[in-house]
Amino acid sequence: MNEAPPGSRGTPQAEARARVLAEMARAPLDLLVIGGGIVGAGVARDAAMRGLRVGLVEQHDFAYGTSSRSSRLLHGGMRYLAQGRLGLVHEASTEKKILHHIAPHLAEPLPFIFPAYQGNREWVLWQLKIGVKLYDALCGGRNLGRSTWLSREDALGKVPELRAEGLKGAVRYYDGFTNDARLTLDTLRSAAKQDALLLNYCRFVDAANREPWYCEVREELTGRSQTVLARAVANATGPWADGLPHSRVKSRVTKGVHLVVERTRVPVPEAVVMTEDKRILFAIPWGERTILGTTDTDYHGALENVRAEPADIRYLLEVANRFFPRAVVTEADVISTWAGARPLLAAPGGAPSDISRAHEIRSAEPGWWDVTGGKLTIYRLMAEQTVDKVVRMLKSSSGPNEQGGPGASRTAMEPLLPPVETEGVSGILPPAMNCAVVEHYVKQEWAVHLEDVMVRRTSWHHCFRDAARRAELVATWMAQLLSWPADTQAAELERYARVTRAGTRN
Ligand SMILES: Cc1cc2nc3c(=O)[nH]c(=O)nc-3n(C[C@H](O)[C@H](O)[C@H](O)COP(=O)(O)OP(=O)(O)OC[C@H]3O[C@@H](n4cnc5c(N)ncnc54)[C@H](O)[C@@H]3O)c2cc1C
Fold it and tell me: pTM score, two decimals?
């Protein structure tokens, strides 16, 4: 079998990657971002829009980490509301509306039905009724839709399969539905248009602060190391952040699992909130599928191995069957799964679901920032606050002639991409499967491996039961488009089967 990965040889893609790395090394960067998840992508975009010379390295594929394994919700957080964390709810609710404005193709209003049952002391109907009105108010104006109260009959009218026994009524409120990996990729595409230098499969290895920072990165497809100089460094490596040299991050990592089933098996016309004690889980309609999630348990294993274990799957099916008793959904109904590691700020005790989702931007050493915690919904704000700090530092260390320099963030106002650049290739639902879209992903969106297209660019892997068969066709297209040598196609199919079956996904 071919040893050399695709993208490592003298193909146009390999040459383009080499040019990006050479350009990063040609002259000092203002900012090197480590990590190509949503936070790193947001930081790179904001910095590039302010005119900084910015580079970003991602050790695997863009959005490989938590940013392709979330519940895909843009939300203030009903649970945080119940915990009285009103500041967090207000912050995230405002951001969800900003994302709806700058990326409407990836921020659809989604109604949630939250049923209340007799005897449930954690989620009481009258409290929920007040809660959803407060939730709307905390959006700083109008929410993505107005919340309403539903009688028992109305709730069953909207979701006929919902458990009727003990049902007292429900509330209906709005959050946003997104596609996490696509949001990351489109943020990166937007950054690239502003001249950010972006490289996936390139790992940050170490750095020394000699003003500027001398950073060693390794191009993983060729194994070539390169020194990149940067006046500032942002560590945006999510759950990997503790392990990075120079990082002062102390995080507590928890695992969350999702299942995808046919929508006919768990028929939800709108999202439904399922509760387990204080915990909130969701059944979310996703085209012809339903997403069920999520779990929240401490995780101490290797981050590359986080996956749905049989016990996680059983737990989610049990909860779903309790709320939709006629569904009797079983493991045989599961089309795909994904599991992610939440990068939470350390809190040694307490239940995982009680740990704050607040974020922190800390300068561990001069010119080095650790950006941690938070959630997908507030990535733009995290990025803005990080780049504000970087800009202040750059201005204070530059001569009086450079004091004008970069201005304020514009990321809340300017759309990520014009609709013509997202139509047919980026959305909440998977795109139609054809060679032209695959060509777009390999030529315009840095896809190197078959997995990059099947999982993160398109979600085809999660959507189709016969994803393995479809992957064969996609591999044929990629082989043509990327001039793969004969044995690479078979090696890629083998790699895809390995990572999606035994590795990080299933
Ligand atoms: C199960 C689950 C459900 C969630 N649901 C939601 C939700 O519905 N809504 C919401 O708002 N939030 C949600 N979140 C939280 C949200 O997904 C995360 O906060 C967010 O994705 C974290 O992004 P990140 O960029 O910090 O980390 P990541 O996406 O993990 O990115 C970090 C990247 O750094 C890279 N990296 C690590 N080390 C190096 C190195 N040495 N060199 C180069 N690159 C490196 C990694 O490969 C990785 O790609 C959820 C999280 C989980 C786990």
Answer: 0.96
